[in-house]
Amino acid sequence: MVNYGFLSTYPPTQCGLATFTAALMRALTDPGGDERCGIVPVVDSPTLQRPRDTTVRLVNGRPLSALRATEALNRYDVLIFQHEYGVYGGRDGEDVLDVLAGMEIPVVAVLHTVLAAPTPHQRLVLQRIIDASDAIVVLSHTAARALLDGYLIDAGSLHVIPHGAITPAGPDAVRSGSGPTILTWGLLGPGKGIEWVIEALGHLRDLRPAVRYLIAGQTHPKVLAEQGEAYRASLQSLAKATGVGEQVVFDPTYRDIEPLTAMVRAADLILLPYDSTDQATSGVLVEAVAARRPVIATDFPHARELLSGGAGLLVAHRDPVAMARAVRRVLTEPGLAESMTARSADLAPALGWRSVARSYRILVRALIEARPDAVPTGHKVAM
After folding, report:
1. For the segment 72-119, what is each residue's pLDDT rounded down to a tens digit?
2. What is the pTM of this model?
3. Are 313 and 285 in contact (CB under 8 A)?
4. What value, to the nearest 5°, has the Cα angle with vertex 254 and ends 250 and 258?
5. In sequence order, which ranges of the chain are alpha helices (DSSP H)?
6. Cα pseudo-dihedral 103, 108, 110, 115, rounded to 10
């Protein structure tokens, strides 16, 4: 029996890292298995709602909280630590190093962002995380290459394990008869590139039935705190000015993973128009491919890696004409959407949470068994 300890944001916090952690914990504790999982959630304020079944939290900016988190996590057999810039306290999240310094168990660091051009201090913090960890997991081969090129890391400690997604069985969801739906989802904020899709719709007015563009997701909490709903309002104004206001639908509902998957499967086409040219990992991209939907994405590294075999089309960044041309191809070219769906179906099994959890189990058991003082797993009492 293995007791997994997790350090990450966690529901009810609404962010991609929290959703990822909750899904991985569920996958590791499938009925009939011998694994147990516990979480020390990361929060910015002690007044925030506490997740169920947790007694200890890491409250950013509270040194005593870090000490308690360290003590709690050391009761497990292994720590699986989720890293993302902006999650942990201190400059570039450096406060998490205090927790890692006190770990007496194997540490697996899952790096959700590997910056192509980090600042010197960001590079220093990440290097210290690497040094404090027994294994490093990245979510794409692009991220792995960036680490090997830019950091001091033992290649033997570096592992590529996909993000993970639900891989639905059976036929696709029934689509509406009102016309094709293009879907973009995720926490809303500048850099998503949604404005380019709205402009692209202006080049598709001749398509019948008319294209519907669904933009699903709440405004990112940090964007909301700093800018309110200014970005969403600007998109609504742009849609009206472009003459496609009736084709653009905003859905700010926050969805858990199952209803989110159902929404993705009901779309005719997924569009990832991100402005970033160096995005090494994208959970949204993985979820779209795992759901067996045709994908159009801007030419960022993870999209090149996952879609180059035919599961999707790549387009130039900030180019509404190129986006419109790609959308037209997928919706009108005979056999293209079907071939993209078939290629996604080939990729989907390796992206499913069951397969991802299996990879983490293998990695963790190897780390535990490799320790000189290894004892049978399951010897500790979880929180």
Report:
1. 999 999 999 999 988 999 999 999 999 999 999 999 999 999 998 899
2. 0.87
3. no
4. 115
5. 16-28, 63-73, 96-101, 120-132, 141-150, 194-201, 221-227, 230-242, 257-265, 283-290, 301-307, 320-332, 336-351, 353-370
6. 70
